[in-house]
Amino acid sequence: DNTGALLEAELGTSYSTIKTISRQRQAGHYDQYTNIGAGIRKGRLQMLANARPSAVKVMVLMTDGIANRTLTSASPSQFALNEAQLTADAGIKIMTVSVGVGADTNLMQQIADLSGGKHFNVPGGIPVAEYEAQLKDAFGQIAADRPLKLIREEEAP
User: Could you tell me the pTM of the whole model?
Assistant: First the structure.
């Protein structure tokens, strides 16, 4: 894809689709490179185009790698930071999750900080059960961070 990121499912409520997609993907599924900036851009554009106007917008960025591909003349890391700033400017908080030994935790922390989000690090080299428990804990904290917001009936999905 010439945009550097692939959107496999639009915003919606088909949780089984997301579960299936996420369980079928492993590191390097599409490419050996990681275009974090393009992923942030694609997510932001999807939210701006399709999210409910009254919804609190939160992006979860999870990677096991290092930004090493860009779509601009900026370095891959700077491209990711530029896209994170545009996302923050659009009112979207980015929660980041670094997974594995090779993830660029410094960049992920910077991206979270730009938008008022939080960074979670789940390092490698641990038993699968512990790895799973740490991911569940991170996603539990991400879910708990979302504010409760009452909406009018006509705004409900």
Answer: 0.77
